[in-house]
């Protein structure tokens, strides 16, 4: 129905433009051209230089026929070309950036290259051997460009691989025009990036994100991570992981500085914090452990408080206290690849500061509330699609709706339809909703342990194990049981210099859990982890199944 507010008030180029994070870098280059945008070893690039490099890369891509709907794949570490790619690829007529996990095996990379129909592949020479093997397995034949990092350290754990490409990155940039105008998306719904899920069973799914979501998530990061004017952001999180949680696009909003870091090493992190005045960094809990457990000779003092954004399991209270003592303020986030990375934040209420320590710890363990660009965040019964009671007890599935949700899965309409059934994105995570609207994860749906007909949360057991002073890291999975169907099996890493027994940890669990929830077995040793620091529970399930079959 037309109203007076529709008549003669059309959507025009003058009053409506598609949202895109490309405009954030363009603005920063105009307003802060001389401010440091990127630091990489001895290299310091201004915003004028960064914008020029992005335009040259976009121009070179366009000159090679790259345009809307074409996939540009990269196997890069946290280096300047990775930042370039986040802006230049979509500027090249609407191409799509496909960031590949550098720890992937060749077969997985080959699948992704073929599935994405990659036209160009940019490869850091650190990963050239794996990339060469993947290309030999793949059907596509992309133009391959080598990145030979001049800052690659002489004392690296392994030497650079041999060139495998058609030309070098600097040669390719030289093909481009530093004054190239580039192109903004014709529609903010256009794809900007492609990220593949971890694919613990079968082939991974290709998550397609759009310009509007990337632009809004960048602004969300500014708000929820507290990026003030000219922040200094350290790349401890791999940029290939959910496009670095959209921080490559977020930091230029405030004309901040991005400090590159090839490897997560405690000494290098402390040096960067002290030497460059780092204000923000992100990472999995393993990064916190790396910092806290570093030898004293690697630690450096610094005057500023550093915001540390972490996802995955909530940090134990002991870790939070240790991080605060070390000068870090930890913010707990939650999200998935399908939500551009974290889209939920444990927003701290200052009124909780007066609560006793155990009650504060209980609130810090919650995942939190939705980011601003989410329309809604709910815990629902996946069968009835009705919200569960907000009682902090009733389990349901976490569901998302809004601009921070992917377009869908590439070439997989069945999986897309299943993920969006009922008008919500189904996360597969199980949680409770507290009366104040904060959600708290209890498990992945596949990680719930059903023992004797009772549902047991592996996270609840892990939280109890973390209360033991000797436990550095732990994970709990289901172990097959003839009697009970399944029982909990705990895998534990002990802190350096600490000792504990299986019986001792089971007794500790009994002090805070019902007997049926306690582990029937405790296995000591290092936990298998992904490249982003998440525990590979599928590998632990295999170990637990083998334990169950082994004679006692």
TrEMBL record:
Q: Which InterPro entries match?
A: AMP-bd_C, AMP-bd_C_sf, AMP-binding_CS, AMP-dep_synth/lig_dom, ANL_N_sf
Entry's family note:
Belongs to the ATP-dependent AMP-binding enzyme family.
* Occurrences of domain AMP-binding enzyme C-terminal (ranges): 460-534
Keyword Lipid metabolism among UniProt keywords: yes
Q: Which UniProt keywords apply?
A: Fatty acid metabolism, Ligase, Lipid metabolism, Plasmid
State the organism of origin: Paracoccus methylovorus
The residue ranges of the AMP-dependent synthetase/ligase domain are 25-410
Taxonomic lineage: Bacteria, Pseudomonadati, Pseudomonadota, Alphaproteobacteria, Rhodobacterales
> Which PANTHER family does UniProt cross-reference here?
ACYL-ACTIVATING ENZYME (PTHR43859), BUTANOATE--COA LIGASE AAE1-RELATED (PTHR43859:SF4)
Entry keyword annotation includes Transport:
no
- Superkingdom assignment: Bacteria
Q: What is this protein called in UniProt?
A: Acyl-CoA synthetase
